[in-house]
Write a structure and sequence with these properties.
Layout lengths: L2 H33 L25 E6 L8 H12 L2 E6 L1 H6 L5 H4 L1 H10 L5 E4 L2 H4 L11 H8 L2 E7 L1 H9 L5 H7 L7 E5 L3 H5 L1 H14 L2 E2 L3 E4 L5 E5 L3 H12 L2 H4 L7 H4 L9 H5 L6
Parallel strand pairs: 1-2, 1-4, 2-3, 4-5, 5-6
Antiparallel strand pairs: 7-8
This protein binds flavin mononucleotide.
The site of flavin mononucleotide (FMN) has 15 residues, from helix 3 and helix 8.
Family: Belongs to the HFCD (homooligomeric flavin containing Cys decarboxylase) superfamily.
InterPro entries: Flavin_trans-like, Flavoprotein
Keywords: Coenzyme A biosynthesis
Length: about 290
């Protein structure tokens, strides 16, 4: 065979063999992937997590709700203080906006040290960071899987919303519950302490709805408000609205932990009525009302 003839046959044959070989490799890889047993997940879904129904009886259990304020970069500092000063077990509930604020993209650039601490804390067995997905992920068996926002209420001795955004504050005062954080807060036992530390732009703070919503929550829960402080805010405005200092928030939390043992294991059922709030009753005029054809 001439050199030209050899090239004419050998090149397409090599290409064909290479193609078949590559195809076989891909097929083998795909069958290995699909036949492989599912990888064990990094941790159990929260609705089956043992910590949610157990926990150290001696130590306070704090649910820290973190919302979408720039001040959420202070959350790692708050978690460290909760653990060091109170030896607390902590569950942090992040709203979607808080998740964005505490991400590598925002907190990683704005407050790199705090972000590194945050990443470290999330590896700790005593700090449970939960997002909206944790309510639903793995939830399959209605009779045995836990309802996360309800179980968190039973687990916790104390709920803290810090930083509390204008949005979450308004949602609480209206009783809205469209994410893990607000479902947990709507289900909160009013006989256990609740601390709110608002943080927002000065004009948002001065808006009449802020005072109205805080007053509503004080009347309902007897909650503790740690007021924001005045300074130059992240947006450049100067005025009240910055999150109170971690030490001020901690001072209030420490006071709220006193006597926590006595509040454990009490049923929250009827707690609102014990506080003087009436359960819904049919309006009196409706009691008299009869359909015309009856
Ligand atoms: C950069 C940035 C900073 C913000 N800071 C605050 C803040 O300090 N306080 C606040 O109430 N809202 C702030 N917001 C608006 C909230 O993130 C927004 O209202 C959001 O819906 C809050 O959701 P959440 O309450 O579910 O966390 C900020 C938004 C952006 C983009």
């Amino acid at each position: 065979m001439s050199g030209r003839g050899f090239a004419q046959h050998a090149v397409p044959t090599c290409l064909l063999a290479g193609g078949v070989g590559l195809g076989l490799l891909v097929w083998r890889w795909r069958s290995q992937v699909s036949d492989a047993p599912p990888r064990p997940s990094r941790r159990l879904p929260t609705c089956r997590a043992p910590w949610l129904t157990a926990g150290d009886e001696e130590r306070p259990r704090v649910v820290l709700v973190c919302t979408g304020s720039v001040a959420s970069v202070k959350v790692p500092e708050l978690v460290v203080a909760l653990r060091q000063k109170l030896d607390a077990q902590v569950a942090v509930l992040l709203t979607e906006a808080a998740e964005a604020m505490t991400s590598a993209k925002i907190a990683g650039r704005y407050a790199p040290e705090s972000f590194t601490k945050w990443e470290e804390l999330q590896q700790s067995v005593d700090v449970h960071v939960l997002r909206d997905l944790d309510e639903w992920e793995g939830y399959e068996d209605v009779s045995s899987d836990l309802v996360v926002h309800i179980e968190l209420r039973k687990w916790a001795d104390l709920a803290v919303v810090a930083p509390c955004s204008a949005n979450t504050l308004a949602k609480m005062a209206l009783g809205l519950c469209d994410n893990l954080a607000t479902s947990f807060l709507r289900a909160w036992d009013p006989e256990k302490p609740l601390v709110l530390a608002p943080a927002m732009n000065t004009i948002m703070w001065e808006h009449p709805s802020t005072a109205k919503h805080l007053k509503t929550l004080e009347d309902w829960f007897g909650c503790w408000v740690v007021p924001p402080v005045s300074k130059r805010l992240a947006c450049g405005d100067v005025g009240r609205g910055a999150l109170a200092s971690v030490s001020d928030i901690m001072e209030r939390i420490a006071k709220c932990c006193e006597g926590m043992e006595g509040r454990r294991n009490s049923s929250a059922v009827g707690a609102w009525q014990r506080r003087g709030f009436q359960e819904w009753q049919k309006s009196p005029w409706l009691k008299e009302w009869q359909p015309r054809d009856a």
